[in-house]
Amino acid sequence: MKKLLIVNGPNLNLLGSREPQQYGYETLADVEENCRKVASEYGYETECLQSNTEGHLIDAIHKAGAEFKQGHCDGVVFNPGAYTHTSIALHDAIKGVDVPVIEVHISNVHARETFRHHSYISPVAAGTIIGMGTKGYKLAINFLLDR
Hints:
By secondary structure, this protein is an alpha/beta fold.
């Protein structure tokens, strides 16, 4: 069975309790379960990873790139959290592998603080979904698997 990788960055483990007016009340477990359901409709499984550590996220992108080349992974849905605005290393990791990555943000980062308006990830992502709440993950999966 083919798979998708769902990757969430720093502080997304706090979904449901951290700033619910901004991010809603769904937990990360809810998001991951919804991703599993959507992917299973296409006959795919999901591997979900959340880390507050940049290096773990880079390792996950590298692994997905290797699995993509082997035909075992069809893409990555990636919410890099605050690393979006700071991580050249994540930019380089995505650029260095061929796997399609869809960048997802639950909130509309362009309606927030100005430091959130720049993304190091967008230039190397296959697409970006911003401000659609947790439904953005479903949209990203649909895009990857409808390609």
